[in-house]
Amino acid sequence: MKRYIIQASVLGFAMLLLAGCWSRRELNELAIAVAMGIDKVENEYQITVQVVEPSQVASGKGGGDGRSPVTTYQANGKTEIEAIRKMTMISPRRIYTSHLRMLVIGEEVAKAGIKNTLDFLSRGQEFRTDFNVVVTKGTRASQILKILTPTEKIPANKMFSSLNQSEIIWGPTSATTLIELLSDIVKQGKQPVLTGIQVIGNAQQGESQDNISSPSPPTQIGYRGYAVFRNNKLVGWLNEKESNGYNFVVNNIKSSIVNTPCPQEGHLAFEIIHSSTELNSFLRNKKPSIKIEIRTEGNISEVNCSNLNITKTEVLEELENNLEQEIKKDIEHVINISQKKMKSDIFGFGEVIHRSHLSYWEQVRDDWEKIFANLPVDINVDLKIRRIGTVSNPL
After folding, report:
1. pLDDT for 57-91, tens place per residue?
2. Could you give the maximum distance between any two Cα atoms of the chain, in Å?
3. CB 309 within 8 A of CB 315
4. E strand or H helix at 354, and its extent?
């Protein structure tokens, strides 16, 4: 009987511990941040957060009272967490970051190094790791977060959706989450890249309601190329074609368009519907090399050529060869500037050698930057045209 009394007492005590909501946070006490920007102002960090205005985005609300669907708060601090805590002096609610969708890193912060930012984000208990990370190009992160966007009431949702959609149907961009960025940072023989974002138009105009009331917004937010990092610091940018070539190498092409000149004049557009890349490393006489095997297939989506009969087998074979050369040329170019100009192994060639030739890698890991600069890379592209469209010959 005594044993049952003790068990009942322990069970009752446990239920008392589990029953309460001592750590609860009411929604009306929180400011839900959907985007965060990090800039450097002199020797301090400047944090900007984009907070949702619930009354403006609730179902059935049209925003007819002229109020913005989001509010931005900003504060400076010697550390990033200090800046966020300082926001309580201007925000009526505590900033809550568990629903963050976009992190925008200012170009100046990226040039100085992002290791402190990554340490702050990975330590914070409220931060999840599934939000997208981008770097500003030619502007500040605070300016990006203040631009109002049409279609999507919440600008952070616009940035998130646009980036994910462009990754699926257009080659030169990718949606990199925090966990993926952290993985690239700690990998041996791999340097990270992040998609760039910029303001298109006048930044001040983009902050007003006029920007979303016009059928042609004077100011927009757009993605442009890749920011290349070396040892956690921004060292340069890839343009659109270079970014496309990079994504071919790292097997990140889901769909894209490749153009090739016609035999006489005009261009032919090839839509990629599937692409896969395989990287292999070889070691001969203690000299490494990389082989890239790319297999791509797709459809002819537009023909601006005269006197080109694409129903003929020999014509299709010639087009396949031309398209293979176009892709190969883009890849050779981006590898060359990464080796000679950026001096950054963004493709993970070192990681491939690390996996395949561990003992060799242990010998050269500290000198990999020099070895990478002269690393021989063999590229083979196998492209197949599957369909030519519903029209056989050009109109």
Report:
1. 555 554 555 667 888 999 999 999 899 889 888 88
2. 99
3. yes
4. helix 349-356
